[in-house]
Task: inverse folding
């Protein structure tokens, strides 16, 4: 009887299945990553016997070459470990809202009729090179014939799983409304587990406050090359209402911040690939005056003179570690950069000093590791340092492929 029931079960499913169940989509509807050469890299860390896998999901582009308008309605994300399904996450109504809000905003920023590959510097800082193919970008929450629409999946769902195994692959299925039918589309992605290749030292020494770490979803994690970036500020007595950031009304000058002009060192051996040194620190001499509006005003003149990257990052250095990893040091102090493109550096060499240039509300160092020297198109890479073990970030953590945390962590790196 049990064997007969098992044999008949597939037939029963067909007979009683929901009439609105999704069918596989035909070739007229396709989905791919919005960003060219996007790597989907997980955060991993271990506490006890449990591993946590945390993944920023890729933003998608839905392309419609069919005859009916196509509307994204649901997405399913399946986590796989050693070939077995271990977790499922699902999104419905919020997905439709994100799509409906996103496409008009993108059309306004990019212009109607966008085709091919687009690398708008202001958008590239978040998305890199976007690939639209030969389709027009829709200005609505659906894609008509010959149109495509953007699905900012990273804005509405983060995949996270804790269990005895790491998730080593994820599978994404998008459900769309095609006319009166629901259709399912598999979304191929490149899942790229990653461990730091280089033997790196932390770029600063002393008492430090490391903030805006990768688990803070509203900061660096949203951007392509900054996904695993972090900021380093000086640590000091915790002030009521301000944490250890040393931000208070009496700090009007850059020299009021103990980390200002602190020596920045190369994290590893390599060759200087790029330097940007055109941002005048005098424009940011009073941190109390910083505002987004004022910074945008500065950009009207500065971008044309020094380029968008030097304007956004302030003065910066990129080092090629000749292993597929590039370190990036931003907001450096004017006239403190000691290297030029082509120079060889050794691990621990002084290369510049902490400043307050670019998009910076107080003196600090922005650091990130990337898979190319191009800040606007590179993938961010998780990074660990030989002098910062996982337990320094979380006392219960025994292994990790990245500095983890959200708001801030206090470190003391030996002189």
Result:
């Amino acid at each position: 009887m049990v064997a007969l029931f098992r044999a008949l079960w597939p037939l029963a499913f067909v007979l009683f299945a929901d009439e609105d169940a999704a069918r596989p989509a035909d070739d007229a509807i396709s989905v791919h990553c919005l960003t060219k050469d996007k790597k989907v890299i997980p955060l991993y860390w271990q506490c006890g016997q449990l591993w946590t896998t945390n993944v920023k999901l890729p933003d998608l582009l839905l392309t419609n070459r069919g005859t009916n308008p196509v509307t994204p309605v649901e997405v399913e994300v399946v986590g796989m470990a050693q070939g077995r399904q271990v977790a499922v996450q699902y999104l419905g109504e919020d997905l439709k809202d994100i799509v409906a809000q996103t496409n008009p905003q993108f059309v306004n920023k990019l212009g109607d009729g966008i085709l091919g590959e687009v690398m708008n510097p202001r958008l590239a800082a978040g998305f890199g090179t976007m690939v639209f193919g030969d389709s027009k970008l829709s200005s609505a929450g659906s894609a008509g014939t010959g149109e495509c629409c953007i699905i900012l999946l990273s804005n509405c769902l983060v995949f996270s799983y804790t269990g005895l195994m790491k998730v080593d692959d994820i599978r994404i299925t998008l459900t769309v409304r095609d006319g009166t039918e629901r259709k399912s589309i598999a979304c191929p992605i490149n899942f790229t587990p990653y461990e730091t290749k280089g033997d790196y030292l932390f770029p600063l020494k002393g008492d430090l406050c490391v903030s805006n770490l990768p688990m803070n979803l509203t900061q660096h994690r949203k951007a392509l090359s900054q996904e695993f970036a972090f900021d380093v500020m000086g640590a000091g007595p915790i002030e009521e209402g301000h944490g250890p950031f040393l931000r208070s009304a009496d700090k009007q000058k850059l020299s009021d911040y103990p980390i200002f002009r602190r020596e920045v060192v190369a994290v590893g051996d390599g060759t200087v690939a790029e330097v940007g040194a055109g941002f005048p620190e005098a424009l940011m001499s009073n941190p109390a005056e910083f505002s987004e509006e004022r910074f945008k005003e500065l950009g009207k003149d500065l971008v044309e003179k020094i380029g968008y990257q030097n304007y956004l990052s302030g003065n910066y250095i990129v080092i090629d570690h000749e292993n597929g990893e590039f370190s990036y040091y931003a907001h450096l102090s004017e006239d403190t950069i000691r290297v030029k493109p082509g120079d060889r550096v050794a691990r621990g060499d002084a290369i510049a000093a902490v400043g307050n240039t670019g998009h910076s509300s107080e003196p600090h160092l922005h650091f990130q590791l990337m898979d190319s020297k191009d800040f606007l198109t590179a993938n961010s890479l998780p990074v660990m340092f030989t002098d910062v073990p996982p337990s320094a970030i979380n006392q219960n953590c025994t292994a990790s492929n990245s500095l983890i945390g959200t708001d801030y962590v206090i470190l003391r790196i030996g002189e």
Notes: The chain has six helices and 26 strands. The CA atoms of residues 49 and 104 lie 46 Å apart. Residues 21-187 form one domain. Confidence is low (pLDDT under 50) at residues 1-19.
